[in-house]
Amino acid sequence: MNERVLLGHGSGGSLSRDLLKDVFLQAYASSELLRLEDQARLNVEEDRICFTTDSYVVDPLEFPGGDIGCMAIHGTVNDLAVGGAKPRWIGAAFILEEGLDIGLLERIVRSAAKAARSCGVEIVTGDTKVVPAGKADKIFLNTSGIGVLGRETRVGADRIQVGDKVLLNGTVGDHGVTIMAAREGLRLGGDLRSDTASVWPGVSRLLERCGQAVHAMRDPTRGGLASALHELAEMAGVAVELQESQIPVSPAVGSACEILGLDPLQVANEGKLVAFVAAESAEEALHVLKETDRGEKAAIIGEVVSGPKGRITLRTEVGGTRVVPLLSGDLLPRIC
Amino acid sequence: MNERVLLGHGSGGSLSRDLLKDVFLQAYASSELLRLEDQARLNVEEDRICFTTDSYVVDPLEFPGGDIGCMAIHGTVNDLAVGGAKPRWIGAAFILEEGLDIGLLERIVRSAAKAARSCGVEIVTGDTKVVPAGKADKIFLNTSGIGVLGRETRVGADRIQVGDKVLLNGTVGDHGVTIMAAREGLRLGGDLRSDTASVWPGVSRLLERCGQAVHAMRDPTRGGLASALHELAEMAGVAVELQESQIPVSPAVGSACEILGLDPLQVANEGKLVAFVAAESAEEALHVLKETDRGEKAAIIGEVVSGPKGRITLRTEVGGTRVVPLLSGDLLPRIC
């Protein structure tokens, strides 16, 4: 095995086959992948599926709490989960820069494989392309995913109603601030770690215990909690009022945001779940989220109100109210 | 609308939303996409589906006969089709370089949308990331796809048998030679055009008319016909003997390959289908392929023989026999 990625690893010839066998198949261990056909065959037991795709271009590739490999799996698992679908199958497509260290690639691929196992999904199809040095930045990774929707499951922005409570499963801003600190070599103090994780355990218990009282869910990634709430509120034609004192922010992220002049509501997350739940089931839903792994900081952070569609307001700790703007440009490129 | 892609177009904020609405939704016009959820919900009428993913990094982005947009749709449609699955849904994920001309992006997106319509597939989910100038080369495009497998359909390398005839639906090498000429500014004469196209019309008619006599199929892309045959023959544990005189090569590609010292069997295609068919149905299958659009040059190019597994030999026009090697390195990076 070579120690660096060569252009020939993308040729479709014997070098491609070697890379596939030595790096990818070893880590994924999927019987569908081992068929080596151009497509995976899957048996679906329900007649409704969910389908999603996302590319990951995060820089740096490895960071406290995770790397591009596990993060891409979690991200795609989460996009299925917030639709109420049980994540099942993943396609993983790598674009590699010529000269990439094979050891780094192996770490990333193994991390993706491990994350997939722990999420209960199978990587069943994939692709690898290699571009000349300087034409990409080390590794870009696309993950697409298929999940299965139960017959009873109905979640979506169209089910949001005035009076719904807004729940969050933990602290905001951890991923974004961690990447920023890692990239710029900032020593911000405290224990900064990406929150990259699957939200499916929380989602599945919510659906089990609260059923159709769960109206809509999102995983607030790029653009942060603010973006996710804006999108949902706009689609639902409602406004949302948040209680600043109820939104969990870790001390490390809080002080980093103060130093850097950032609003933690606009900073990216990779393992957070925001759920709109009927008011009468909100306490039960909170209990469920708190019981989930890493869910001890879960909170009811606000509620749906009638008002200009898409408007998100924040009741501040000192008693005032401010509008939470939708981020226009970019806090930081390549956050995910 | 800006005329260039900005980093903020990848932020997840309002600029991202503008790009989505102005460029992507306009072109795709999919009701699932218009839901603007993070995943598409799909109803499957059969309980077996196929799933595939591929990234496209072709350089140049536009070339005679096509562009990265339509090519990515055709490529994913073809990976499903050769598994015997009717292509249905596509996810399209773009990685864009900051500063990219929006007009170019619009042409590519429209071309993808047009190809999808003409293939009868729907683009139901997508993603866009933007990386700083110099960190990617204009546009990389990942397409993932889902197809539906009929209950009776059984194709795969494991069904290949000694005596099977090998069929091809047209000339080889057109795509690779076209890209090479376009990139290097070579004037090779003749009418060089990429063969990018869907093979599903040919596949569906083959399955309809020849049923289970169709044992296995591939679309010979990177690595050319040689790679596709090697892969299938190795998986099936057989050898293949080709008749050089029967393999269609256009005059333009033939003379270009002579000048450049290339073997047309190793040059990439993007609209070719190679099918292994039971001998007694081979003439019927040939008739079907010849009747398909652009199929007039279809031919029976060889047959499956017992011999060292994976060995591909060529009976030359002058009566000799040579082994067709599997390409090791790369003829040309970024061919697809």
Mean pLDDT of chain A, as a whole number?
92
Helix vs. strand class of chain A: alpha+beta
- How would you sum up the major sheet of chain A? 7 strands, mixed
| Rg over C-alpha atoms of chain A, rounded to the nearest angstrom | 21 Å
The number of distinct β-strands of chain A equals: 14
Shape of chain A: globular
Low-confidence stretches of chain A: none
Straight-line N-to-C gap of chain A: 30 Å
Say what oligomer this is.
homodimer
How many DSSP helices of chain A?
9
The SSE order of chain A reads HHEEEEHEHEEEHHEHEHEHEEE
Binned, the helix content of chain A reads 25-40%
Strand % of chain A is 15-25%
Describe the SSE topology:
Two copies of one chain form a homodimer.
Chain A: H1 14-28, H2 31-34, E1 40-43, E2 48-56, E3 62-63, E4 66-67, H3 68-81, E5 85-97, H4 102-119, E6 122-131, E7 139-149, E8 165-168, H5 174-184, H6 200-210, E9 214-218, H7 224-236, E10 239-243, H8 251-260, E11 274-277, H9 282-291, E12 299-305, E13 312-315, E14 321-323
Helix pairs in contact in A: 1-4, 3-4, 6-9
